[in-house]
Amino acid sequence: MSPPLNHAFRRALVLVVLGPWMASSVGAAATPSAAPSPVPPASTVLGIDGSRFTINRRPVFLLGFSYYGALGAPETVLRRDLDEFQRCGFNWLRVWATWNAYGADVSAVDAAGKAHPPYLDRLRSLVADCDHRGLIVDVTLTRHRPSGPADKEAGVHDLNAHARAITVLVDTLKPYRNWYLDLANERDVGDARFVPVDELRRLRNHVRELDPQRLVTASFGGHDLSAQDVRDALLTADLDFLAPHRPRHAKSPGETEAHTRELLARVAAEGRRVPVLHQEPFRRGYGSWNPAAEDFLLDLRGAVAGGAAGWCFHNGSERKTVEGKPRRSFDLRTRPLLDQLDPEERRVVLAAAAAARR
Questions:
Q1: Is residue 11 part of a domain?
Q2: Looking at the 3D structure of the chain, how many domains does it have?
Q3: How far apart are alpha carbons 136 and 92 in whole angstroms?
Q4: How high is the pLDDT of residue 147?
Q5: d(CA 273, CA 257)
Q6: What pLDDT sits at residue 145?
Q7: Phi, psi of 79 (to 5 degrees)
Q8: CATH code: domain of residue 305
Q9: 97: which DSSP letter?
């Protein structure tokens, strides 16, 4: 990562990042301005070299942030968040192509896998802007089998819809090389999200037919990966890298280094070398344990020391407050993510780049 920040620069950074938090937030009446002019495609190319990621062939550690509801955000919100996270050393963000929360369906594809305007166009514009900025974008799909007619939760309903959604996304975003596809969020969780490993393999092959160079993963939810999980991901589904979601409890940050080393050893035992990306760690407002800034930073340092290729600053809504506020990345329609973070999270944003140095 970047060299240590000197004192003067750190003071300037604090003013840049914290200053807007002290001012009034973007108002509810904010509306998107005209779409930005097209930018030359493929100026930012994500690649893999062994167990590390590369950007334009240079090894990098992907330091990211959850930005799930991005397609519902006005351009003013997007610009503010991207500018300031990038100033703080972040180079990656996770966006969902299937997101329906708080009465707003901002999915780029619908439950049948068809294009969902205008949000597919917003995804293309976001990826294009990030390509110009040198940022990597995680585009995530999720499966959701509805329980009945009233079940409106976002997600593609079945294998055919899943394949159709992949076609729409790949065809729309194919000129850009700064994004990868998460085929199925927490694909092994045994509820409406579940995607059998044989279907995962078929979906991965479908991407390869459409775009042979596109990097593809699928995430595993809420547990450390077993040897069988690794075989399912790498040998059966033929994914390009691993995206585990580790357990969320108070001991978890101190265990990340050891579990990352263990996971890389399991990968090596299968004769492979691939990156391990900690895509969705714990977050504040989720359960009885509310992690502090040092917990996030300990987790990040453990990921780096254990040999991970990337780590995400995860954030979302509050489960115990009225209307889930602050909703953070789960709802970006009126307020930038930065304005919704609490003091502990702001400390993480300011310190993460230094903690991510190898």
A1: no
A2: 1
A3: 5
A4: 76
A5: 18
A6: 84
A7: -60, -45
A8: 3.20.20.80
A9: S
3-state secondary structure 161-216: HHHHHHHHHHHHHCCCCCEEEECCCCCCCCCCCCCCHHHHHHHHHHHHHHCCCCCE
User: Do the beta carbons of residue 115 and residue 167 sit within 8 Å?
Assistant: no
Q: By the 8 A CB rule, do 243 and 279 touch?
A: yes
Strands 243-244 and 219-220: parallel
Among 138-142, 150-154, 265-269, 309-313, the minimum mean pLDDT is found in: 150-154
- HEC string of 107-147 equals CCECCCCCECCCHHHHHHHHHHHHHHHCCEEEEECCECCCC
Residue 215 in tokens:
């990097």
Q: Decide if 91 is inside a domain.
A: yes
Tokens of 272: 């492979």
* Residue 12 identity (one-letter amino acid): A
For the chain, what percent of residues have pLDDT higher than 90? 84
* Residue 358 confidence (pLDDT): 73
What's the confidence (pLDDT) of residue 150?
A: 67
- Identity of the residue numbered 17: V
- E strands, the chain, in order: 46-49, 52-55, 58-60, 62-66, 92-96, 100-101, 104-105, 136-140, 179-182, 216-217, 219-220, 243-244, 277-278, 310-313
Look at residue 65 and tell me if it is in a domain: yes
Give the lowest-confidence range in 15-29, 284-298, 338-352: 15-29
Residue 169 included in any domain: yes
Structural domain range at position 260: 53-355
